[in-house]
Amino acid sequence: MSNPYKIFALGADVYSLEFEKGDVDFVCLRQTFLSFPSELTEVTFTFNRLHLFFRRPTTIEEVRSFVDEVMHVPLAAKPPQRLWRLPICFSPAYTADLVDCFEGNMERVHHYHSNFLQGQYRLVFYGFLPGFGYFEGLPEALHLARKSSPTQRTLQGTVAVGGAQLGIYPQDSPGGWQGIGHCPVTLFMPSQTPPVLLQPNDEVVFFEVDEKTHAQIVEATHRQEYQPQSVVL
Amino acid sequence: MMQFIRAGYYTSLQDRGRYGWRYYGVPVSGPVDRRAFALANALLPVEDDSSVLECHLLGPKIRFDVALAFVITGALVKAHLNGKLLHRHEIYSAQAGDVLDVGQVQKGLRVYLKFSAKLSAPRPMGSSAMFVPITPKARFADGDTIQGEPIFAQKQANAHIKVNDDYLHEHGLVVSPGPDFAALHATAQAQLLKTPFTVLAQSRMGYRLSGSFHAKASAHMASQLVVPGLVQLTPSGELLVAMADAQVTGGYMQVLQLSPVAQNILSQKREGDSIKFRCTP
After folding, report:
1. Which member of B19, B24, B222 has the closest CB to residue A131?
2. Which of A86, A219, B58, B140 is geometrically suited to a Cys-Cys bond with B7, CB 3.0 to 4.6 A?
3. Which pLDDT value is given to residue B160?
4. Which tens digits make up the pLDDT trace of B196-250?
5. What is the 8-class DSSP label of residue A67?
6. How close B186 comes to chain A (CA, Å)?
């Protein structure tokens, strides 16, 4: 590996490495850095940056030489990547934002939904809230401008679009993204290890369920009896 | 072991924090004032348990069911044990039935209370720090109890140390440039480091600051890492300073990073207080 990168400091013990997007598999790169636990306590990433949490205050020169050392180690193997089939419900209670976006034009709402169901979306990383995944793969025609001011309460399970990004709210929360539907599956479970159903790099396709099926899945989820389907890619 | 007759304005359990879970979007949490937290644990160390009570503005009123030692650190506060006035940074012994009343904060914002006991609080993801949805509750309510195992409190030789409290009166926050500082116009950079800012609102998540500072911030940048002490500039021209419970990523311009000392200074500021940034060379 010899990818060029830029370094940003966030204090004396946190540094971010910025790569050209698409250059690096961050899941593998993170795993590679995690094999240096004497230097690092945590490694995370966002769209184009890898974030290194050092055990002790470190100078930028030390970071550079450490990164150079790690870059000479063979990249960690790619962990299994799964494709998940997640249910989504488009009943009016869950699509009010989208109806607003299209000023009540239901034909455009339906068209949006049918295009959305054809997509396959990749979980890039978790942020914002515990278990809030940022997904990529939304075609440009499905991008939606964020709300001009966030709403007080976006419901847990809301599948929402903010600009080019797709996310699923793991809990009730204020939110500025446009709800396009509802996914009744529990995605974040704080008492389990790992606490999430999906791992970064996993892919998701959605299938539509009607209100009745949605209600059944909600109940089964409460009884912890609903397990969405997935296959290893 | 003890019960809250009054929980206080916002009282929560905090230990050193929840490390290793940011990958899943879980913030570190822990004390907002790490200095007062470290002092409490140095004065009254409990093996394998750094848990303290973090209180804001009005502290709790607690009845002890067992004999316990305790110490108070952080903001200047009026506190009494059975009506007898207490001082911070001194270790006191309470008997079963005694009542500790931590009242109004006089100077600063956050008070820390450490007990000579190993608390039996749940530790999801390795930490007792209260944070929803990792713990069911964000703070204590009236009538709540805390269970635990009292330990023999060894009176520390330095139990009467003079503690320098200057940080409660300090208004200068030492900062370093954040990842997007260079993207600001030179006049905005200079203004940011010259203008006094006022605290508009604060919580364990962060501080909102405003001042006569007008810089054009880019809206909707790609979400990047947020750590405690990071100063973000919103499109409306306000500053958001991330604190212990801040979300782990954010999409605003990242203009400054507070030093650890500056984070502790800010953690004792409240609505209406003013601060100024000072850049390290």
Report:
1. B24
2. B140
3. 62
4. 999 999 999 999 999 988 777 776 678 899 999 999 998 888 999 999 999 999 9
5. H
6. 19
Q: Is B2 exposed, middle or buried (0-12, 13-18, 19+ CB in 10 A)?
A: buried
Q: Which pLDDT score, from 0 to 100, does residue B67 have?
A: 96
Q: Report how far residue A16's alpha carbon sits from residue A12's, in angstroms, rounded to the nearest whole number.
A: 12
How many Å apart are CA B228 and CA B104, to the nearest integer?
27
Please state, in angstroms and rounded to a whole number, the distance separating the CA atoms of residues A227 and A178.
Answer: 27
Q: Considering chain B, what is the average pLDDT of its residues?
A: 94
Which residues form the domain of A45? 5-70
- For chain A, how big is the Rg over CA atoms in Å? 20
The rounded distance, in Å, linking the Cα atoms of B25 and B133 is 12
**Residue B49: CB partners within 8 Å, gap ≥ 6?**
B15, B118, B119, B128
Same domain, B90 and B153: yes
Of the candidates B23, B124, B222, which has its C-beta nearest A191's C-beta? Answer: B124
pTM for this entry: 0.94
Residue B194 has which token pair? Answer: 């010259």
Q: Give the domain range for residue B149.
A: 2-166
Same domain, B100 and B123: yes
| φ, ψ (nearest 5 deg) of residue B68 | -145, 150
Same domain as A46, residue A145: no
Q: Could you give the maximum distance between any two Cα atoms of chain B, in Å?
A: 62
Residue A76 lies in a domain: no
> How far is Cα B11 from Cα B58, in angstroms, rounded to an integer?
9
Per-residue pLDDT tens for B137-160?
A: 999 999 999 999 999 876 655 556
- With CB atoms and an 8 Å threshold, state whether A11 touches B134: no
Residues A135 and A32 in one domain: no
User: In total, how many domains does chain B have?
Assistant: 2
CATH number reported for the structural domain that contains residue A55 in this entry: 3.30.1360
Q: Which two tokens stand for residue A20?
A: 């050209």
Number of domains in chain A: 2
Shared domain check, B236 and B275? yes
- The nearest CA of chain A is from the CA of B53 a distance in Å of 23
Which of A70, A102, A119 represents a domain boundary (last residue)?
A70
What ipTM describes this predicted complex?
A: 0.94
Q: Is the peptide bond before A194 cis (omega within 30 degrees of 0)?
A: yes
- Pairing label, strands B253-258, B172-177: antiparallel
